[in-house]
Amino acid sequence: MNEITTMPRIGDQAPDFEAVTTTGKLKFSDYNKDSWIIMFSHPADFTPVCTTELSAFATEEDYFASKNTKLLGLSIDSIHSHVAWVNNVKKNMGILMKFPIIADIDMKVAKLYGMLQPGESETAAVRAVFFIDPTGRIRLIMYYPLNIGRNMAEIKRVLAALQTSDKHKVALPINWEPGDKVIVPPPKTVEEMEAREKSEYEMIDFYLARKTI
Question: What is the pTM of this model?
């Protein structure tokens, strides 16, 4: 019988943990302090899809830093495997993975975050992505199977969307990209509804209004 794996949900506080990583020992709550975290798991070191993904994260590390966002990788491999893989990618591709990669050889963190999904694999983490805000709350979760690589443009778009929504207290429509109009929360009173009709918002109807920020 398969072990039931914990599945954190959107809105949950991200479970705290301590782990060995490629940058040294790490306590998640300290790493998360005052910054966003994108934590992502990959099935295994020295595999082709994972190499394309983590090298892409490394290439975009300065971009994420400019958005007050730290990266944190994980797989169920030893620290020696991680370091050797980081070195291999640096030699072959000229890309250095500076962000910490958790050596989760005992599967502790993978189980804590629901990264092990037995229908896909009982020994390798799926390609999970957790967006965690500076308060330690999980804001968005993505899951991909072992054989499908993630979309970096979508990861960047989602981060921008979450941060834009928080800053301006707005919602975002389908296919939103930075610079596009945003959706203003619907009115909760008749007075607010009447005020909206006199506003400069782009009015589709009283409950659907857009604005530029």
Answer: 0.93
